[in-house]
Every structure is written in C-alpha cells, then in structure tokens.
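Check the record.
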Amino acid sequence: MEAADLRSRMVSQEHKTAALDQRMTTLEQWRAQSDIADARKEEQFKSLLEKVGIMDTSMNKKMDDLAGSIKWVGKLVIGSAAGAIIAGVVTFTLKGGFHIP
C-alpha cells in the first residue's frame, strides 16, 4: 500500500514539475518579447528626441532671425520718427519760428 502511495506522490510531483517548467518557459518567452518591445520603444524615443532637438535648433534659428527683423523694423520706425521731428524743427525755424507778423 505504501508503494502505491509513494508512486502517486511521485507522479503528482512530476506533474507539478512539468507545470512549473511550462510556466518558466512561458515567463522566459514573455521576458524576451518584453525586452524586444522595450528596446523598440527606447529606439523610437531616441529618434523622437533627435527630431525634437533638430526642430528645436531650427525653431531657435528662425526665432533669432525674426527677432533680428523686428529690431531692424523698430530702429527704422524710431529713426523715421526722429528724422520727421528734426525736419519739422528745421522747417519751423526756416519759416520764422515763433515770429508773429
């Protein structure tokens, strides 16, 4: 009787070991697929960061160009206003200034 009980225990342990081996194989396959997916996502993220860096550099250059153009227009407007004031003062002076006839 004891031999049959021992045999059934061994069979039970063999089934458990087989089930554990199957679970371990499944986990190893999942881990490999997960590593591949993580590597793919990491490469996509690196590519995205490179593109953003390129766009950021390009955008900074465009913003610097725009700022230079705005400064030039501002200087042109201020220069024109100063020229108009000077021309007005000269014209006023040549016409007699505050002389009342």
Q: What stands out?
A: The mean pLDDT is 88. DSSP finds one helix and no strands in the chain.
